[in-house]
Automatic annotation (TrEMBL):
It comes from Chitinasiproducens palmae. Belongs to the UDP-glucose/GDP-mannose dehydrogenase family. It catalyses: UDP-alpha-D-glucose + 2 NAD(+) + H2O = UDP-alpha-D-glucuronate + 2 NADH + 3 H(+). It comes from the Bacteria. It holds the Pfam family UDPG_MGDP_dh. Its EC number is 1.1.1.22. SMART domains: UDPG_MGDP_dh_C. The active site is at C270. It is an enzyme of class 1 (oxidoreductase). GO terms for molecular function: NAD binding; UDP-glucose 6-dehydrogenase activity. The keyword Oxidoreductase applies. This is UDP-glucose 6-dehydrogenase. NAD(+) binds at D30, K35, T86, T121, E158, K273, R338.
């Protein structure tokens, strides 16, 4: 099938590459010339395991191309995926300007029946607005072409995006039930049929329910995390270990083990913005989502928990102290720094007078860029440095902080760490180590919900 992808970011690029992988003819369009230039030079602008290989294979087979040419983009695809960003607006609602611009770009050029697929995460009612934008452009041109807007929210996780896309838990398709909607549904069914060979994964529903399902999923996952973080903080007070508690409750199949890890807060481009957007949608309808307001408040507080623990241990003035930070990306296996808990944490340490030596296996370039945007020109920025080796960061530091659970941090050389740190102090925001093992190593270990400083 001929597919156009509008927006070649984390979702668009993975969607395009994976749809090419199963044999489709894919045209990826983006307004960002830098991104398209990198792709056309054979590179990949983001770090996502396995993605470079899929793109290279399909480029060589002539099944995927990248362009900033909007005319060619709209002409190409019978199915047009909109996968542009929907960042939070000032009031927390989803900013739909990029989605609607993409819709207008399609409407201004379409020359026959098109299926327009909302892949971006968008509030309930957006498909209707996309339809209106398309119809408005057609009317302006005095042209009449059939189209239907389908909601097909994406559930991939960064760091596992290719795997998630190729083996989805479910494919949600919200279609209208008029004639064009049924035609669109049949085309989408055909497009996704290779993913359903083992068992049927597609769930058909109305458009508004599909739009809502995406927010409900992220809100539920964020709720589990904030719930565990709140209990972890209590576990610290009462002297229980949240890791035992996690296993104890996760073994109940009604609860399950996933997304119960306490830590220094959830980040990323999705949970924070989608929780906010759902709260905002509710308030527009006169509803106060009490649970989700608490989920957000707990997460905001959780991003300060490591700093509080450090101040508790070392006193409120950190002038002259140096901290090694392992992990900058919002989660492992990505270079994405959007809403990464490392950002407020490092900013707070710098504000308290400390110096920070930061290390991440893949996010260093992106970290330099975002910390530059956040802090450049300030005295604090002078006290932040980036290291290319984790142990270079710890040499002579007053403590080590773990912020992202990269695999390479799971079994460090504790002897070397202890010898290098000026005091054997580890603050772990991701609960990577066993407190008893750390005690044996002679390292003072503070984690999240594992009891007070040991
Ligand atoms: N990142 C994820 O893990 C993930 C997962 C599921 C859903 N989503 C949702 O998917 C959407 C995209 O997220 P992302 O992380 O891929 O964003 P992103 O910022 O990585 O990519 C968006 C891309 O759209 C491009 N763009 C903006 N306006 C455009 C236009 N008018 N025409 C063409 N291109 C345009 C930008 O240049 C950018 O490259 C969001 O709604 C997000 O909530 C993201
Ligand atoms: O038990 C857990 C699991 C995750 N996290 C944190 O939660 C954040 C988000 O992690 P994750 O969900 O793995 O990454 P995302 O790539 O943001 O994926 C989420 O957001 C995407 C965009 O909407 C959805 O498509 C995915 O299904 C959804 O998992 C990260 O900061 C994690 O450190 C925890 O603190 N504890």
């Amino acid at each position: 099938m001929k597919i156009t992808i509008i927006g070649t970011g984390y979702v668009g690029l993975v969607t395009g590459a994976c749809l090419a992988e199963i044999g489709n003819d894919v045209f990826c369009f983006d307004v960002d010339e830098r991104k398209i230039a990198i792709l056309n030079d054979g590179g990949v602008p983001i770090h996502e395991p396995g993605l470079a290989e899929v793109i290279a294979r399909n480029r060589a087979a002539g099944r995927i191309r990248f362009s900033t040419d909007v005319d060619a983009s709209v002409m190409h695809g019978d199915v047009q995926f909109i996968a542009v960003g929907t960042p939070p607006d000032e009031d927390g609602s989803a900013d739909l300007q990029y989605v609607l611009a993409a819709a207008r770009a399609i409407g201004a050029r379409m020359n026959g029946f098109k299926v327009i697929v909302d892949k971006s995460t968008v509030p309930v009612g957006t498909a209707k607005r996309v339809s209106e934008a398309l119809a408005g452009e057609l009317a302006r041109r005095n042209e009449a072409h059939g189209f239907s807007v389908v909601s097909n929210p994406e559930f991939l996780k960064e760091g596992a995006a290719v795997e998630d896309f190729m083996r989805p838990d479910r494919i949600v398709l919200g279609c209208d039930d008029d004639e064009n909607g049924q035609r669109a549904r049949a085309m989408m069914k055909q497009l996704y049929s290779p993913f359903n060979r083992n068992h049927e994964r597609t769930m058909y529903m109305d458009v508004r329910s599909a739009e809502f399902t995406k927010y409900a999923a992220n809100a539920m996952l964020a709720t589990r995390i904030s719930f565990m973080n709140e209990l972890a903080n209590l576990a610290d007070e009462v002297g229980a270990d949240i890791e035992y508690v996690r296993r104890g409750i996760g073994s109940d199949p009604r609860i399950g083990y996933s997304f119960l890890y306490a830590g220094c807060g959830y980040g990323g481009s999705c949970f924070p913005k989608d929780v906010q957007a759902l709260i905002r949608t509710a308030s527009e309808h006169g509803h106060d989502l009490k649970v989700l307001n608490a989920v957000e408040a707990v997460n905001e507080r959780q991003k300060n928990v490591l700093v509080d623990k450090i101040l508790n241990e070392l006193g409120s003035d950190l002038t002259g102290k140096t901290f090694a930070v392992w992990g900058l990306a919002f989660k492992p296996n990505t270079d994405d720094m959007r809403e990464a808990p490392s950002r407020p944490l490092i900013a707070a340490l710098l504000r308290k007078g400390a110096s920070v030596r930061a290390y991440d296996p893949v996010a260093l370039d992106e970290a330099k860029r975002v910390f530059g945007l956040d802090l450049s020109g300030t005295a604090e920025f002078e006290r932040l440095s980036f290291q290319h080796d984790p142990y270079e960061a710890t040499e002579g530091a007053d403590a080590l902080l773990i912020v992202t659970e990269w695999k390479e941090f799971k079994s460090p050389d504790f002897g070397r760490l202890k010898a290098q740190l000026s005091a054997p102090l580890v603050f772990d925001g991701r609960n990577l180590y066993e407190p008893s093992e750390m005690r044996k190593q002679g390292i003072k270990y503070t984690a999240i919900g594992r009891g007070r400083v040991l």
